[in-house]
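S2.1 Query sequence (Phosphatidylglycerophosphate synthase)
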Amino acid sequence: MSSAPSVRRPLKTRDATWARALARWLAQRRVSPNRISLLSLAFAVLGAGAMLLVPFAEPAARITLLVLAAVSIQLRLLCNLLDGMVAVEGGLGSRVGEVYNDLPDRLADPLLIVPAGYATGLAWGPELAWLAGCLALLTAYIRLLGGTCGLPQDFRGPMAKPHRMAAMTLGLLIAALAVPFGWDGWILILALLMVAAGAAWTAARRVHVILDALESR
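Output structure tokens follow.
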């Protein structure tokens, strides 16, 4: 992430004592924010791999894989939090930081959404997951589009990145609890439906705000 990024997602956790302490510890050790951003992508790949293995695993292993995927999502979000804090508060940003900050995010979202459709083991799970993943990318594209139109980038939900990752994390954890009953696939379907519907609503809201702002100029 750059030392003076044009836009930062408003996050309450940025003011948390533990987050500031961890960011300070990383900055003191000169850990590059760009490496933290790449690490977030590595956690996304780990989570995707865990979900893709679910249909081939025994019940006990499926539980472990679903929990691992949920933990990977949270570690991805932790990296997303820390890269900006180390860059800005730690003064370790770089000229190419915006690329490292944004591109891994665009790859990580579908990596942590689409494989959940295959983990369901249901015939139409992958199609629903691809729809949810594409809609997630669309919300980010519309946010960036507003910026190219000279408007403040809009992080509103109801299914912005933190919200869809929370939905996926919760869905994976509940699915893990539901494995003994054979309901894990349907729990993941429900989570994907929530992400898809919420992302579509979010995209529509953001487009509406952009059009209103441009027409009122």
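DSSP finds eight helices and no strands in the chain. The chain has one domain: 12-215.
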